[in-house]
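USER: For my understanding, would you kindly supply a protein sequence with its structure tokens?

ASSISTANT:
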Amino acid sequence: MVKSILLVGVGGQGTILASKLLTAGLMEAGYDVKMSEIHGMSQRGGSVSTHVRYGEKVESPVIELGGADILVSFEMMEALRWLRYLKKDGKVVVNNFKINSMPILCGLADYPADILEELNEKTTTRVVDAAQEAEKLGNAKVMNVILLGTIVKLMGLEGINWEKIIRDNVKPKFIDVNLKAIKVGMDLV
């Protein structure tokens, strides 16, 4: 059986690194894994999504509408934007974090005030404050690995050697804080 994980966020949030760590861990565990990245003006704060699919045999890296087992949103508005990709019984993790898009910054649009309420009306949503947890660890940039930890826990992937994956893929000076971050993420859900 193939499982599909959709990670979405805004350029600069570390969505792609989290996806690469996830992919490395799944491959290490012996799964056939396919990953597809979509960078929509990511360097300028645009939408970024990564599709990660794993199982015994994966034919396509792309998650179809209504095909994601889990949607992890690094930014609140992105959760609404990508919600149509979630399975009816899928899980949603939303980082309680907002980044104003260019239209909002220019005064052409307002950031929706009721995103979390709307998400809860449509599906069971777990809200985490990965930014606050990252600040507690002393490095705002580990928010992505905290969110990776939520995926690990919700998808039952705790048996993978995540310490090895982080040690093999993260710069040496950031290994310790990332090891703490993945554990924090697992403990949040």
Summary: The two ends are 24 Å apart (CA to CA).
